[in-house]
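tool_call: predict_structure(chain=1)
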Amino acid sequence: MNTKTRDRDELKSVEEKINGLRDQRKEAIRERDELRASVSKENASPGSPQFAEAQRAIAHVKSIESDLERATTEQVDMLKRLSGHSKGAAVMGNGAPPIPESGAWNSRSLLANDDVRDRLAQMSGTTMPVGRMHLGRLSDRDTLAADIAPTANMRRGEFHGVVPQLRRQLRILDLIPTGTMDGNVVPYTQESGSFATAAETAEGALKPEGAVTYTDQTATAVTIAHWTKVRKQALADVPAVQTLIDGRLRYGVERRLQDEILSGDGVGENMRGVLNTTGIGTVAYSASELITDQILEGITSVFLADAEANAIVMHPTNWKAALKAKAAGDGHYYSAGPFSVTPAVMWGVPLIPSAAIPVGKALVGDFTVGASLFIREGVNLLISDSDQDDFVKNKVTLLAEMRAALAVWNPSVFTVVNLAP
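tool_result:
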């Protein structure tokens, strides 16, 4: 058997292998799609058998496609090698022109033959099969261009994943002690009154009465929740999309909780926050005083309530104004200035710049003894394909929610400082 005959036999074997791999790929894709459809909300966990089977089917399709790509490359290499066996002297049957000396296929040489051109012109207007390929009817140039024109959302490079939105630091949640609750209400009793009633008393005289008052209070759990919808295909096709959505929904609930702890108005289902709690101290705005001096008034107010301030929460705009304050005479900064380390304290008390508090207000307090956060249900993420018309639209709804209650034990250990009129 000469080299040319052997190469043709190998080419035939490779073509049969390619046809077999295409059939395998078709069957593997069908199996993969069926397994994907079988993954529901109950078994969508990465540790479930259904999820593992779906992942195995996806990997099987990719493996077959890799084998098919290698076989196709091998076919192209063999075709090039076969073309080199018939340089110049060989003539194709049915009047086809000889293959050029370079060994490469030359379309100009093919169309130089009048008989070949006539036959191609006749076949282009019919649906007759030619060999194993079916030409069908020719498409004009404009139609073809419209079919392959790029779209506005077409990715032109390697996909590098989802870039998450920037998130505010939830540092205020770290200031307040956290506990659990068994029901939806935490009952407690507040003690108030004066410790200055005790006095020296002569024998036989009426002794002074201690001024103490006990008031019953309750902290009621509120529900904080939000949801979003996503296509099932996106969960399956985009890497880590469920983890990203999970984190985003959980963060949104915790961010709202922080806002409610500070500024909740207690109306309807809202939590009553520290700033709207009756009994907290207040420092009035003074246009003639520096922001730092007004904050010192708030720290003093907390000391006078027999507590010790352990945090200051201030809006970044007011924090900036405090750092930029300069003396009227020589214009030097009251702070350390722009070329030194920006302090994270003010008057020795830790300072937290946060957009969670309104502009023009600062909260000074002893957060350790002043309030507690009770968690009835932590942040839970629920998934369902039975909401509205999700099932028929191949969508799932992801819901994040929590239940919590805020108890402000001692309102007097908090002071709000008004930094704007």
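agent: Residues 25 and 64 are 6 Å apart (CA to CA). Proceeding to next step.
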